[in-house]
Every structure is written in structure tokens, then in C-alpha cells.
Design goal:
By secondary structure, the chain is mainly beta. The chain has helices at residues 2-8, 322-327; strands at 23-32, 39-48, 53-60, 66-71, 76-78, 84-87, 90-93, 96-102, 107-115, 141-160, 163-168, 173-181, 187-193, 202-212, 215-226, 229-234, 240-246, 250-257, 260-267, 272-276, 284-299, 305-320. The strands form 2 sheets. Strands 1, 2, 3, 4, 5, 6, 7, 8, 9, 10, 11 and 12 form a 12-stranded antiparallel beta sheet that branches. The longest helix is centred in the N-terminal third of the chain and has 7 residues, at 2-8. The radius of gyration is 19 Å and the shape is globular.
Length: 329
Amino acid sequence: MKHYLRTTLNPAMYHGHGIRPPFFEGWYYKLVSASETQRWAIIPGVFLGKNEHAFVQVLNGVTGQSAYHRFPIQDFWAAQEQFMVKIGPNEFTQDFIRLQIDDELGKVRGEVTFEEVTPWPVRFTSPGIMGWYAWVPRMECYHGVLSLDHALRGELTFEYHSQSTPVEFNSGRGYIEKDWGQSFPEAWVWFQSNHFEQPGISLTASVAIIPWLGRAFRGFIIGLWQAGRLYRFATYNGARVEHLEIADEHVDWTVRRGGMCLELRACRVEGGLLLGPTRQEMGKRVNETLNASVEVCLTGKDGKTIFQGDGHYAGLEVHGDIERLLRMS
């Protein structure tokens, strides 16, 4: 119980100590250089169950090329009292990553530190992005946002396909989130950007099929960080979906809460394939891009515009039985 309370109130920490399989946990680091010409996602994680192992996935957000670096489960270590994870010689925290990947797929080495990390606020009644749902035991998948936006410092060198690419991330921007549980949902849409014309703005949005007491419902979470304020639209705080359209070229989404209206339009583009968890294995092949864009318009109760802008270099995933997702309410 003590571990359950500690990890629920500290979403960044590893939740798998003492958990029976199947279980997965993964952290998602998005790194964009100051020039914005280099965009990478680094995804460390662990899968417990049949064929259990640890991994570090690497996605080149410009080319869409990806690599799944697999490690023996014995190479995975996580601290009990704080967020610190080691996979072989690779280290991951909320403040830095250190990479020394070297296998038949390629090499990645270097260190990047994070400055002015901006986590989703955690309160006892609403511990992170999932709100009070974070307290519900045995959900299929939990979600956390460890930093909506932060500055980067450091350098990584990527060696794939006999080509070495040193990338300096000084003054670049980053984003960190994570997932843990038994499996990814049957279907979901997710997109995120913290590259708007005005610095210090970040959007993260997701909608998915959520199993619940033998049935299922469509749940969603949206956070817009703007001018030092977090605007939240979620199933758990009474927001409602007014419109949701998922087409081959775009995702149109309008939500309302307490007289406020948030309109989103994400433009879909092709990306690279990542692996995601089922209850049996890391078997879902998920298409993710870091080249999408999203238009955002937030209006207040009086109908006046609070924020309007375009986010670039957006992460975007559309996966699973989308028709069923759209039919649900």
C-alpha cells in the first residue's frame, strides 16, 4: 500500500515493483534541436510476462526510421524512492538521459539534461493528468505527463546504417510523458506539440477506448499550457466532446467545459513504426510521426479568444479500431 500511494502521487516513478505480470512501463522523451532540423524520440521501458525484457526505442522524427534495442530483463533497474531507471549502461531520470547503446542495430551515445521542467500538477485528489482515475486500481493503461515543456542541453550521436549523426540539443525544447499498465488501449488518438510561435506553450491531447467494469467508454484528456496556466479538458472534470472527426488527412476535435471551447485540428502525415504492449508481448505496431501540425483555438465563456496558434513538429498517433472509437460516447 505504501508503494501504491507513493507511486500514484509521483507518476514519474517506476510502478512495477511487486506487480504481477502482464505489466509494462515506458517513458517517452521527445527531443527537438534549437534549429528544429533534428527531432528524436527516445523511449525506454520494460515488459513483464512472456518474453519479458527491457528496451530502448529510438525514433528519428525527420526520416521516420526507428530501432528497437532489446535488453535482458536483468539489465533493468529502477529506484524505489524516486524516478531513476537504468537499462544496461543507459540512465533515465526527469532531469537527464545518458545513453550508451551499442548493438547490431546501431549506436547512440551522449547525454542531454533538462532545464525548467514543467510537470503536470499533482494533487492528492487529482494526481497528474489522469485526475482521480489515477487512484482506480487495475486499469488497462495509466498515463502521466512528466514535463509539458523544458529546455535541452547536451549532445547525442546516432549511428545507424553506417552513418554517424552528432546532434547538439543546446537551447532545444523537450517533452516527457509515460504509460504503464497491462496493455495499450484497443484504439486511441494522441497528439502533442510544444513548438508554437510563442515559447512556453504546450498541448497534449488523447482520446481512447477505456475498459470499465466489463464494458467500455470513450475517455479523453487534453491539457493546454499557456501563459503559465494549464487549461484542462477531460472526461473526469465534466468536459464533453462536441465534435470528433478522424479522417485520413486530419483529426478535427472540439470540446467544451464550463462555457469554454477548445477547437483542435491536427494534420496527419506518415511516420515510423514503434512497438507497443499487448497483454502477451510488445506486439502492437504503432505508426508515430513527429512531423504533424495542429491548429489550436481556445475561447472563453464570453466568446473571446484566449489563445490561437499553430503547433509544429507535433507527435501524432492514430491507432486501432477507430470506427468503434467514433461510435462511442
